[in-house]
Design a protein that fits this description.
CATH class of the largest domain: Alpha Beta
Shape: globular
Largest sheet: 4 strands, antiparallel
Number of domains: 2
Helix content: 25-40%
Strand order of the largest sheet: 1-2-3-4
Number of helices: 7
Strand content: 15-25%
Order of helices and strands: HHEHEEEEHEEEHEHEH
Length: 222
């Protein structure tokens, strides 16, 4: 039994994830949980998160390697900190490419298309819609020490149809476009057939795939 299965997710945090188009099945099977005195002790002891990182309120996002092993978690602050910081993770944990534990076997099947999102939450929104996805933190989150992360190379990509779905702002910021182009070339070198998916600007200047799916779900329920 995974220790963090004993930690609770608050109703407010669950509702926040619902608004991001995540299903209860995907939420519970990761599982997401809230920062509490008990979970802070676990995160400090198990993953070396500092007292500063554990200050305030937030949602803990356990992360998993493509082959199923749990790796460094991420915290999504709710609300964001006064300096605008939304996320944190343990020092030295760059390059995590996460695959939801419910999709470990699916991601090994190259006949199933795969979408990469620039957030775990965005990938889980796709997963909630039945679409196989992997996620990482930010547009450079797939890269570490100057090259593709080990987790990325563990995903079978040769001959696979792959989509890149970054947030809306990637299409009008040159610094982000550089990351997109480099990731696209890296996936091609790993043997994938790559498609860039463009979110409509109407969802917001910095919106992601989870925002888009939430809007679509709301429109369908209207």
């Amino acid at each position: 039994m995974i220790v963090h299965e004993t930690f609770a997710l608050s109703d407010d945090h669950r509702e926040f994830l619902h608004r991001c188009a995540l299903s209860d099945e995907v939420i519970n099977s990761r599982p997401y949980y809230s920062l509490t005195p008990q979970s802070r002790v676990h995160l400090a002891a198990q993953w070396g998160l500092s007292n500063e990182a554990l200050r305030g309120e937030g949602i803990v996002i356990p992360r998993y390697c493509p082959y199923g092993d749990e790796t460094y978690p991420q915290i999504r602050y709710t609300p964001p900190r006064k300096d605008g910081q939304k996320y944190t993770c343990p020092v030295g944990s760059g390059g995590v490419v996460d695959v939801h534990p419910g999709a470990t076997s699916r991601v090994q099947d190259t006949s199933e298309p795969l979408i990469f999102a620039e957030s775990i939450k965005g990938a889980d929104a796709l997963q909630s819609a039945g679409i196989l996805a992997a996620g990482f933190h930010g547009v450079w989150g797939w890269k570490v020490d100057g090259g593709a992360s080990l987790e990325l190379t563990k995903i079978p990509l040769k001959g696979r149809e792959v989509g890149i779905c970054f947030d809306v702002d990637v299409h009008h910021r040159r610094d982000l476009q550089k990351a997109l182009k480099e990731f696209w070339r890296t996936l091609q070198l790993l043997g994938a057939t790559v498609h860039v998916l463009v979110l409509p600007a109407v969802v917001g200047e910095k919106a992601g795939i989870d925002d888009y799916l939430a809007i679509q779900a709301a429109a369908g329920g209207a």
